[in-house]
Write a structure and sequence with these properties.
This protein is α+β, with helices and mostly antiparallel strands. It has 6 helices and 10 strands, in the order αβαβββββββααααββ. Helices cover about 25% and strands about 20% of the residues. The strands form 3 sheets. Strands 1-6-7-5 form a 4-stranded antiparallel beta sheet. A 4-stranded antiparallel beta sheet has the order 2-3-4-8, with helices on one face. It has a two-stranded antiparallel ribbon with strand order 9-10.
Length: about 270
């Protein structure tokens, strides 16, 4: 599933190319996504102008005057800017024709979504998808104090807390494993057992990991490509994720893989002591 860095890579690629672009029309070939594409979406967005391209967690936000199109890439989605000459293929479900090109939403597994939030419906931050999301990890508001306060008295693992999205948003499975390695924290450690100093180190590690991943174009483990069709390369730099049995690049101890709440977790048992 595309995580925060992948969505941010798509956002940056689109922002520089479609901000202020006008929308000429929308073609919906397959409305049956995670949530059905509303039948009146073409009429709602026709003749609109894309004022900006934002992001909240793993959601893309195409802001227009009368509302915002909320886009989620699901497990296998792609959102690319193409020329009008690029004929649609199988799994190309929605085209948004703009003055800058055709925004095409592709999703073989159909777990993604395109939802319209009317500006008259109120503040977008209060939308049910966003109301309970934590702080953005790349924002100035994020620091170790937030994580430390949220963890007090909690017995769940630190990895589980990061994946919940309630304290900090967008730190998915790949980047949680990588951030915990950088901070020298075991993914099995109880969230409530970690000190303020260790949470400060973890916050720095999260920010650095996500920043490095964005600079590398994200991670392309399966279907992910940026808005220009290019794959990401951060997976080549991973210290622990996907490297079970291989030597740790810091101490040569074999990397271990375990299952935590149906998700694979990778860590170095020597570098990441509890």
């Amino acid at each position: 599933m595309p995580e925060l860095p992948e969505v941010e890579v798509v956002r940056r690629g689109l922002e520089s190319r479609i901000a202020r672009a006008s929308i000429g029309g929308i073609t919906v070939r397959e409305p049956r996504l995670r949530w059905p594409v509303r039948a009146d979406l073409p009429s709602l967005m026709r003749d609109e102008t894309i004022e900006s391209v934002g992001r909240r967690g793993k959601y893309l936000l195409l802001r227009c005057k009368t509302g915002t199109l909320i886009v989620h890439l699901g497990m296998s989605g792609q959102f690319r800017l193409l020329s009008a000459a690029d004929a649609p293929r199988r799994h190309d479900h929605v085209d948004i024709v703009t003055s800058a090109g055709v925004l095409r939403f592709t999703d073989p597994r159909r777990f993604g979504a395109l939802l319209w939030h009317d500006a008259r419906a109120g503040d977008l931050t209060l939308h049910p998808l966003f109301a309970k999301l934590g702080v953005e990890p790349l924002s100035p508001a994020f620091d170790g104090k937030i994580l430390y306060r949220a963890s007090r008295g909690r017995s769940l693992s630190i990895k589980q807390m990061l994946l919940s999205g309630r304290e900090v948003v967008g730190v998915g499975n790949i980047y949680a494993s990588e951030s915990l390695f950088r901070a020298g924290i075991s993914p099995r450690a109880r969230a409530g057992s970690l000190s303020r100093a260790r949470y400060e180190a973890l916050a720095v590690a999260i920010r650095e990991t996500l920043t490095d991943a964005i600079a590398r174009g994200g991670s392309s483990l399966r279907d992910f490509v940026g808005s220009d069709g290019e794959q990401g390369h951060f997976q080549l730099d991973c210290q622990v994720y996907g490297r079970a049995g291989e030597p740790c690049r810091s101490c040569t101890t074999p990397i271990v893989s375990i299952r935590q709440h149906q998700r694979s977790t990778f860590f170095c048992p020597a570098c990441q002591r509890r």
